[in-house]
Specification:
alpha+beta, four-stranded mixed beta sheet, two-stranded antiparallel sheet, about 260 residues, 10 helices, single chain, Four Helix Bundle (Hemerythrin (Met), subunit A)
Length: about 260
């Protein structure tokens, strides 16, 4: 699966950013819920561990999910993740990337249509590894912002775009909104300047602009007001105000101007 290679390249991008940091810098707080860089790496590593268990040790995965849902109900999710992943700083970075490489290798030879257990409904192996890329990319945005760096983007962002599109119905359902019959037409420019089109061509219900900015909206790393996306029609505007390509309870996008490079 190309998506396995894309996931690894996304992980390398974050690794390259963090390798030169001092240990103390891993405790810097980002603009994402005041999570530190360590918090973000713990979260990414924790869910990589769950993917590994889901594919290779299903019984262990079931036990982890039982503990996970118990932690959610008691409001102790962050402490639970921290208890499973005790490493910090460069030790954590090394462990996270080593498992990322293993997952990429495993998923290269997995049937893309294999159903994989997850916290919610099962999903295909292709969607599973694409979701891991999305998580690295989305949470990595907070780290790039914190360190004042522009991330080198590539056309592998298409996987995140596709996840965002596939979550069109979910984005409405999770926010208690009626799902429109027709998705807006998308015309997006890729980092390599290709034009990607999705949906039925129409002028009254469409979204046009940068593929990276669209991805920032569906992952809630930016507010639509902080992008140059052209959004036409009520359906498109409602979607962009509530887009959510990740599982879990309904989440709101950051307020305008809140998520950005810090220096």
């Amino acid at each position: 699966m190309q998506q396995a290679s894309d996931f690894l390249e996304e992980s390398k991008s974050l690794l390259n950013l963090l390798e030169g940091l001092d240990e103390s810098e891993f405790e810097k707080k980002t603009l994402f819920k005041q999570w530190t860089i360590n918090d973000i790496l713990v979260h990414l590593h924790f869910w990589n561990m769950n993917v590994d268990s889901s594919v290779n040790k299903p019984d262990q995965f079931d036990k982890m999910m039982e503990q996970f849902f118990s932690a959610i109900q008691t409001g102790k999710l962050r402490p639970y993740e921290n208890s499973i992943v005790p490493e910090r700083g460069h030790e954590l970075l090394k462990s996270w990337y080593a498992l990322s490489k293993k997952l990429a290798k495993d998923f290269t030879s997995i049937d893309p249509k294999l159903r994989v257990k997850w916290a919610g409904p099962t999903m295909s192996a292709r969607t599973c590894i694409s979701a891991r890329q999305m998580e690295v990319w989305a949470h990595g945005q907070a780290v790039f912002d914190l360190l004042g760096k522009d991330r080198p983007e590539s056309d592998r962002i298409r996987n995140v775009v596709v996840l965002g599109i596939n979550a069109f119905c979910w984005s409405h359902q999770v926010h208690g909104l009626e799902v429109p019959e027709k998705m807006p037409f998308l015309k997006l420019k890729s980092p390599s300047s290709e034009v990607w089109e999705f949906g039925e061509c129409q002028n009254t219900n469409m979204i046009e602009g940068d593929a990276v900015e669209f991805s920032q909206i569906v992952t809630q790393t930016r507010n639509i007001a902080d992008t140059s996306l052209e959004v036409t029609g009520n359906i498109a505007k409602t979607w962009m105000a509530n887009a959510q390509c990740f599982a879990g309870p309904p989440e709101n996008p950051p307020e305008p101007g809140v998520r950005k490079k810090t220096h």
